[in-house]
Amino acid sequence: METPLVTDCLLDINNSSAIDGTTVAAAVHAGNREHLWDSRPSPEIDAVVIHYISALDRDPGNPFELASILKIFCDLAVSSHYLILRDGRIFRLVPDDKRAWHCGGSVMPGPDGRTGVNDFSLGIELVATHDSGFTADQYVSCASLIKSIEHRNEKKCALVGHQDIAGTEAVRRGLRSDVKRDPGPLFDWRLLAEQMTSFSSGNL
Fold it and tell me: Which distant-in-sequence residues (6+ apart) come within 8 Å of 15 by Cβ?
């Protein structure tokens, strides 16, 4: 299985990438942190959660700007393992073996039913808005990345959207107060599955 090209852009105090007049390192440090992740309770990873993110609320004229999106992660002290830009470039924000803060209060769909999905999942953020849709390059990169993750972990992963684990059921259980709706109805799960079949699965 050929590993997709992934560029490290870790959300920690060693990242000198410029964001809004400062750096990722300085923004993380300003929150009295060394990095925007913590340890997993178990090394097992068997789920991938798809999200979308943009800077639409902060910069409506340029919602897909990487620096603005990195600033959002730092300001809100949230994180995800991977970020896929509109042109398909993939950035690693959190090491796979660490727990990113991408799900919040969450529960896997039945019959699984496990809570605390951050513990055993990897998060992938696609740069998009609620009405932009997703690019062909993003689907190709996302599919390739998921197949690479499955190959490295030697198992199939459950694929879910943020909306599937942090929706009405999570609210009903008292795990969270708000309902998440990403990646939303414009995300084409069938196309993602088709793209995944185009990549060699390796020895899963």
Answer: 9, 23, 24, 25, 28
Instruction: Domain ranges for the chain, please list them.
Output: 6-10+38-197
3-state secondary structure of 59: coil
Query: Of 89, 197, 68, which is closest to residue 138 (Cα–Cα)?
Result: 89
Over range 48-55, report the average pLDDT.
Answer: 98
In the structure, what pLDDT confidence band is assigned to residue 20 with cuts at 50, 70 and 90?
Answer: confident
**Res. 200: pLDDT tops 90:** no
User: Among residues 109, 2, 121, which one has the least CA distance to residue 50?
Assistant: 121
Task: Using alpha carbons, select from 64, 187, 73, 67 the residue that is nearest to residue 127.
Answer: 64
Q: Which CATH architecture has domain 6-10+38-197?
A: 3-Layer(aba) Sandwich (3.40)
| Per-residue pLDDT at 117 exceeds 90 | yes
State how far the Cα of 12 lies from the Cα of 94, in Å rounded to an integer: 9
Q: Which of 138, 172, 166 is nearest to 47 (CA)?
A: 166
CA 16 to chain centre: 21
Amino acid at 101: W
Beta strand 18-19 with 38-39 is unpaired
Task: Tell whether pTM > 0.90.
Answer: yes
More confident residue, 2 or 165: 165
Contact 204, 152 (CB under 8 A): no
Asked if the model's pLDDT at residue 37 lies above 60, the reply is: yes
What value does the CA radius of gyration of the chain take, rounded to a whole number of Å? 16
